[in-house]
Amino acid sequence: FPRIAGKPAGYLFEQLRSFRDGRRSYPPMAGLLADLDDDYLREIAGHFASLRLAYPPPQAPQAPQRSVSTLARGRVLALEGDPSGDVPACTECHGRALTGAAPAIPGLLGLSRDYLNAQLGAWRDGLRHAAAPDCMAELAQRLQPEDVAALTGWLAAQPVPVGDVPHADPGARLPMRCGSVEAEAPAAQSAAPAAASHGGATLPAPAGAGQVARGAYLARAGNCMGCHTARGAAPYAG
Question: DSSP characters for 93-129?
């Protein structure tokens, strides 16, 4: 069973709603939440998001996850991704420290290997869903079984940084719109200037800082470099 204390409130709310509305399948949770409205679910999510509890020590890697090469592969997938398989790094969405990103992306540290395996399997097998675009379902399909084992083994063996909680990083990466997460944070939306009118035609306005940051994030999360950059060449040079 996963830890829920300290996870982003937006993430907890979406998971509660997913259990209630059938996008996640677990009858005990569905039964508990069946008659609760969104406002009540937000209260529940806010309570658990506010809790700050110590994490247990990380799991020791188990064979065959214990091998140096397997753990090294897991680290690469988590921190760098795999352009050849169109797999972005976990850090692109889950934060540079893998402790989550406000408002609704969960951390990946402090979770057991069995739980991580189960969730990736649920995404892959269609037992867990999110509102379109269902990015985790797409990503799970791209991961080979040996890569899942390497990734979950490495993540479960990492300590959780002390005092590190999910937070927004203004002007940098914004959460991908998956799992019913909003497409843009309000700060990024407000930073975008209005379109200008010229000669009776509406022209695109110059990109504001929020739009530039959003574009940089999408380029990384979508792994544009995987196709548009030659090995060893300048990024995006074709």
Answer: HH-TTSS-BTTTB---TT--HHHHHHHHHHHHHTSB-
